[in-house]
Amino acid sequence: MSLKEFIVKELPELLDLEPHKLEESYKKGNLKFYQNRFITALQFRKAVGKIEAGTMVSLGEEIQVIRGFPKIRRTLMLKEAIKSHFQGEVAVEEKMNGYNVRIAFIDPEIVAFTRGGYVCPYTTKKAQELMDLTQFFQDHGDLVICGEMLGTNNPYVSHYYPEIGELGFRIFDVREKLTGKPLPINQKRELLNEYNLPPVNLLGVYSIEDAPTKILELVKDLGENGREGVVIKDPQMEIPPLKYTSSQAHDDELIYAFKFPFDLGQAFFFSRVVREGFQSYEMQESEEEMKQRAQRLGESILYPMVQTIKHVSTHEVAGEDLTMDAESPEEVEEFLRHLRDLGVVAVLIKYEDGKAFIRKVHQSTTDKITNYLNGGLY
After folding, report:
1. Among 121, 167, 246, 345, which is most exposed with the fewest C-beta within 10 angstroms?
2. Hey, which CATH number is domain 248-313, 1.20.58.2250, 1.10.10.10, 2.40.128.20, 3.90.550.10?
3. Tens of pLDDT, residues 219-239
4. How does 87-120 read in b/e, with b if 16+ C-beta sit within 10 Å?
5. For the whole model, what pTM was predicted?
């Protein structure tokens, strides 16, 4: 059977979708054939009906579906959102600042997928060095581990956590492969404990009446300690979760974005400022507290942008330097090919003593700043 025949004959029944939707998606290039040394699959570049972007359909001897990770919506006003969205109680887990991946067993390999559905060779290798996953997947091959790659040597998102150090992994969900259905909070944590696998922090379970006040206290404390925020969940995971992040996390994201204003700045700016406004209102901040928030916000935008302009004015590129552990130059080159698949321009600066130093180039910011410095018009 050809690939096109599989898409219009077998895949609709497997995914409970109308054939014409899948065929149209394939024609548009949103459903693509994907192959590397780990997997041969169909990759959903965009959502099709109820099937999330990032979903992978493995085309090995056994057809397997690894559902994409659903988008978690954000609340701006905790009290009203929790009251209208949840019932009874909510479980509050820490949201950590790293890189979202799904880990699944695709016979004969344990494979790590990025949010978009690409196989990450680095995470595939490192996750298995950080955790013993073999027995878990021997017993539960129908499940997917959803988690965050963390640490200062994380080549995607570098953030320091004292308990993580250079590299670590924390699991926030365990889901069924085919349906994407998540396990309830207690069942998930008991299962992870059984296999000695590391979950994210469970910060508490609260009634919907008490939750808003408790969460505001938690998030304020998390932010002051350089941490990101929380994910608010129905303990049975029957209701979609919500996320809520700290002011300091918003500032960190803006600092990063405005280092590369013409690549990332505009996309990051408005939503973070809106979050700050609603958070300041809900926390009933004093004039002095609001002034401090406004100053942090402004500094997060202006300082990194001016720093980058100065840097490019010396004929350097706007880029960020990353460090990753690698056993060989070949392993580094495989990772660089993966970044190129993601549309990221990256070059190897040097490799020594088992560490690769990589520069991600933000070309649009480099080119536009250079043009404006030379008198180009905005």
Report:
1. 345
2. 1.20.58.2250
3. 999 999 999 999 999 999 999
4. eebbbbbbbbbbbbbbbbbbeebbbbbbebbbbb
5. 0.93
